[in-house]
Amino acid sequence: MQKIIHISPRACPRPKVTRFGTYYPKPYQEYNKQLKAQLQDFPQLGEITICFVMKRPKAMKPGEREPHTKKPDLDNLVKGLCDGFPWDDKNIHSLRAFKVYAATGENPCIVISGK
Description:
alpha+beta, CATH 3.30.1330, two-stranded antiparallel ribbon, 7 strands, globular
């Protein structure tokens, strides 16, 4: 089972805490809403492999996918994705995650596979 989500990966930010309550920033709420729409038919899996394909900077030489070693942190990207699953993510028992720069001409996306 593999699914490609055509959305630019976004890390889960820290929640904002005010005297009126706790909430996430609007851009993250929109990202989460789009994720949920694309993942609504995704089956519940125990083993998942995730590849976050990040936008390639213009200053980088053209080429294939390369490891992404800058912010955002990988754990925050995973948290953001898991918030979008239509089922409880406590059932995931095995997880592999990567973040890479997109190849030349490739758009940012999230590739999820598992069993």
